[in-house]
Amino acid sequence: MTVGNEGMRRLIETINRIQDASSLIGVEGLNLDLPQIAVVGGQSAGKSSVLENFVGRDFLPRGSGIVTRCPIILQLIHTPNEGDVFTKPKIQLFIPFIKTVLPFFKYMFIKTSEFISSPEYGVFLHKRKKKYYDFNQIREEIKKETERKIGNNRNVSSDPITLRIYSPNVLDLTLIDLPGITRNPVEDQPKDIDQQIIKIVLKYITPTNCLILAVSAANQ
């Protein structure tokens, strides 16, 4: 790794920590213009697919109508591929000995092998101590946290969910998934839902250091 790349990595880590602090005290709590990429588009325009391509995993909620009801700050952290250095097959060589002599270490090594064979994981800001190796569980946690913040309805909020994904297959980036823009309210949505969403979108894309990634369906 070059000196320049190392400096950029440290800068991104600092930015991520500042974003975490900003999310904890409210987006407006820190008036900072941080570099980020905001993904904007209409409902069902394919924003989730674009974001998942950055990660190479399916982990965002899907469905009809408005699914992303609050901003999701996605911090991608590139990590070394530890599986290339110390892989699960090598650990398997020790298991017969461990089974007969050291049952405790058998448990420890198996748990270690699971970690090494699954170098990709996610961590939510609201659950800092838990690592999610199953990306289906990440999807479910996004749904649960959305309902906790907004309720089991179709309303929207500017209060973000922050998720970090550690993987050897990603670049160091910060992306923001924003609620899809809509024109007409449905079911229990307020009549001004379109203005609420536009207000949220403008709040995140207005900073000068924000790069806007506009997504449009190919059939439109």
Automatic annotation (TrEMBL):
Keyword Nucleotide-binding included in the entry's annotation: yes
One annotated GO molecular function: GTP binding
Protein name: Dynamin-type G domain-containing protein
InterPro entries per UniProt: Dynamin, Dynamin_GTPase, Dynamin_GTPase_CS, Dynamin_N, G_DYNAMIN_dom, P-loop_NTPase
Residue ranges constituting the Dynamin-type G domain according to the UniProt record: 31-220
Organism: Leptotrombidium deliense
Gene Ontology cellular component list: cytoplasm; membrane; microtubule
Family assignment from sequence similarity: Belongs to the TRAFAC class dynamin-like GTPase superfamily. Dynamin/Fzo/YdjA family.
A Pfam family assignment: Dynamin_N
UniProt keyword list: GTP-binding, Nucleotide-binding
